[in-house]
Design brief:
heterodimer, A: 253 residues, 1% strand, globular, B: alpha/beta, Glutaredoxin, 2 domains, seven-stranded mixed beta sheet, 18 strands
């Protein structure tokens, strides 16, 4: 199992030793901070009106939930760029053969790569999650809702990365992997819109498949076992598919 | 290892079997996870949990409730709010179904059902419907409560004395108010006390709206008998003679005061006519409970309740102390004539109730069935088509009818105390945050990236 950590460490090093990771972090931080501050100012300006309302939305609902939604949008765009080269680049540079000959299993390679890229997003999420905490300067947060949203965000990014990793095993060209990852994720995002009218079994299935549907309820602080299981199944499915894909590749042909 | 055709075929078969079994397994797990879903509300504000009152109501519902939401496509904020509100109730009771209709693609349905607001909900239960325009728990709970209680509500408008018509064509009539009532499942009919021998048994309340001719003694006798037998009444009066209804007033213990109410500071409120009376503070009463709007009464009269009857009375609308009742001509200069005019504050609306000896007219089986209710208002214009849209007039009109039908706020949804209601950030703090998040942090990140790039270039 130590192979996982070796691969993950190698992945993290190569990520953070390239300027790309830092530029991505900068862009993501800047965009999300801009949107976050806009939402804070919005809340400050409507606060007097909200005070007169019964059961008015609080800071967490107005500011934090929106920040988490925005993070999902940004993640959708950034993740394909960071997952595209995971396997396909190794294949292009012929380094995959080296990995194959090393004493590590396919599962270790896939999980190591996955953990490597996820650690980058852990850094990103830590940055995003620290923004709302700064609001403690002047108020409080609904920490339950905040934690549920954060958990949802990590699961969502985990699902995105797993899909990106799998698509990266399918092609030699990182650009193709990136575009197809983006396309797949966007499809899973909008598929719910088709499922919103009517009440047939198909619509229920489409709504279930939709990747954002489950995130939304976590953002709102509804912790549902089905939503968690959805993301875990999603991640496991794509990791197993990736492992099988690489196993098939190791076969001489 | 030699790859033979045979081996390739075997691999293909093996792969097919694997992918089939694998997708089946994932599908079954997904199905089970939904089937045995466990949800918890993890928010400190309990914002995803209905209040206890709502939960108690939801427990009693064992037949399907369909919530139809009319939301235009692209209005995601409203759609989210609808989903949240419906989800709140759906998690507590799986009989509640939500479906969306896009009003842009179903204009006929929208017209037919009288949907007027983007995000309007129509709740259907046992063949009856309620419209909801305010997306909050209180509104949905109350609508459900009315649907569950059952029984058709009928308002019977007296006719034959020049009263305001429920379906008249002039701005003084009640077409829009009646439309709004019908949207909420309350039907209206007119009754002629001369030709109709009896007031129908299923009448929720009789409405007398500003008669211009005198009621005949026989008609008054019939109304009195109706009240004796426990019927509810809404009496919308206007300044001027009482049109033969004195016996009714006497029976209730209400006095119709002379004169027209005038507000000496009408200019300040924004009306040219001093006879426009604005009420903005409400006495605590179920009709005006949690009422946050001004209501406007053009040409109203004052009322006074005496204790000469077995009715309990509560004033639910009262004018400001500066308002008084002018008996003579308004004159050029508005002046208080001592001895003739009645000083304020004056009651504009009084609610009467008593425990009727005879079982009520509606088909309810609840404990409070025996309470008989009457509302007298010193104005009839506030719910007319011309003034219904002013301030909270429509809400007041609906609340009065709900109270008469004993459908008032049965469900007071208590306010939840959000822990994160307030955010107290000074301008300096916001500037500091902006500097940190849009200045220092991005620059630091860029610098780190730049340094790595520099070090690698040096090699």
């Amino acid at each position: 199992m130590s192979g996982i950590w070796v691969i993950a460490g190698r992945e993290i090093r190569s990520l953070f030793l390239s300027p790309l990771a830092w530029i991505v972090l900068t862009v993501v931080e800047f965009l999300l901070a801009y949107l976050f501050l806009g939402q804070v100012k919005l809340f400050l300006s409507v606060q007097p009106r909200l005070a007169g309302m019964d059961n008015a939305p609080g800071v967490t609902e107005v500011v934090v939930a929106e920040l988490f939604r925005n993070t999902a949008v940004i993640a959708l765009m950034v993740i394909p760029i960071l997952t595209m080269r995971l396997i396909s680049e190794e294949r292009r540079n012929q380094t995959l053969t080296l990995l194959f000959s090393a004493p590590v299993s396919m599962a270790e390679i896939v999980l190591g790569k996955y953990l490597g890229v996820m650690s980058f997003f852990a850094v990103m999420w830590a940055m995003v999650a620290s923004m709302p905490l700064m609001l403690y300067m002047g108020g409080q947060l609904d920490l339950g809702m905040y934690a549920a949203g954060l958990l949802g965000g990590i699961l969502l990014v985990g699902a995105f990365c797993a899909a990106g990793l799998y698509l990266s095993t399918l092609t030699l060209y990182p650009a193709v992997a990136a575009i197809s990852t983006f396309g797949l994720l966007l499809l899973l995002w909008v598929i719910e819109w088709a499922g919103k009218v009517g009440d047939s079994v198909l619509n229920n299935i489409l709504t279930y498949i939709s990747i954002m549907h489950h995130y939304e309820s976590l953002i709102e602080g509804v912790f549902s076992s089905a939503d968690i299981v959805y993301y875990l199944l999603f991640i496991i499915t794509f990791l197993i598919l990736s492992i099988r894909r690489l196993d098939a590749r190791r076969m001489p042909h | 290892m030699e790859v033979t055709r045979e081996l390739k075929r075997k691999l293909r078969v093996q792969n097919t079997i694997f992918y089939t079994l694998f997708s089946l397994l994932i599908g079954v797990l997904a199905f089970l996870s939904v089937r045995y879903e466990v949800t918890t509300d993890v928010t400190l504000n309990r914002r995803n949990t209905p209040t206890e009152n709502s939960l108690a109501l939801l427990k009693t519902i064992d037949k399907p409730v369909v919530i139809t939401a009319f939301v235009t496509s692209g209005n995601d904020a409203v759609r989210r709010e609808v989903a949240r509100l419906a989800g709140l109730f759906q998690r507590a009771n799986n009989q509640i179904k939500l479906k969306y209709v896009n009003p842009e693609t179903e204009p006929g349905l929208v017209r037919e059902l009288g949907v007027t607001v983007d995000g309007e909900l129509i709740v259907t239960f046992g063949g009856r419907t309620e419209h909801i325009q305010d997306l909050n728990e209180q509104a949905l709970s109350n609508a459900l409560q009315r649907l569950v209680r059952g029984g058709q509500r009928w308002l019977a408008f007296t006719e034959g004395h020049g009263e305001r018509q429920p379906h008249g064509a002039t701005p003084q009539d009640y077409t829009q108010w009646v439309q709004q009532l019908e949207n909420r499942g309350i039907k209206t009919r007119t009754i002629n006390l001369v030709s109709d021998k009896h007031i129908p048994k299923d009448t929720t309340a009789v409405v007398i709206a500003a008669p211009k001719r005198k009621f005949l003694p026989g008609e008054v006798t019939q109304l009195r008998a109706y009240l004796e037998q426990g019927g509810n009444l809404l009496w919308l009066s206007e300044p001027g003679p009482s049109r033969g209804l004195e016996p009714i007033a006497e029976q209730l213990g209400v006095e119709l005061l002379p004169g027209t109410l005038v507000d000496p500071q009408h200019d300040y409120v924004g009306f040219k006519d001093p006879r426009f009376i604005v009420v903005s503070d409400y006495v605590f009463h179920p009709i005006t409970q949690q009422f946050a709007f001004d209501t406007i009464f053009p040409e109203a009269r004052g009322l006074e309740a005496n204790d000469n009857s077995d009715w309990e009375h509560e004033i639910f609308l009262e004018s400001l102390p500066r308002v008084w009742a002018k008996t003579g001509d308004l004159g050029v200069e508005l002046a208080f004539d001592k001895g003739e005019d009645v000083p304020g504050p004056l009651a504009l609306g009084i609610a009467f109730s008593r425990n009727s000896a005879i079982t009520g007219t509606t088909t309810d089986t609840e404990e409070d069935t025996n309470e008989q209710r009457v509302v007298v208002v010193g104005d009839s214009d506030f719910v007319s088509d011309m003034y219904l849209g002013q301030g909270g007039n429509l809400d007041l009109g609906l609340n009065i009818v709900n109270w008469l039908g004993r459908d008032e706020l049965l469900m007071a949804v208590p306010t939840k105390n959000n822990v994160d209601r307030t955010l107290d950030l000074s301008v300096t703090m916001v500037r500091g945050l902006t500097l940190l998040l849009l200045g220092i942090v991005p620059i630091a990140l860029l610098a780190a990236g730049g340094r790595i790039w520099w070090i690698r270039r040096q090699r």
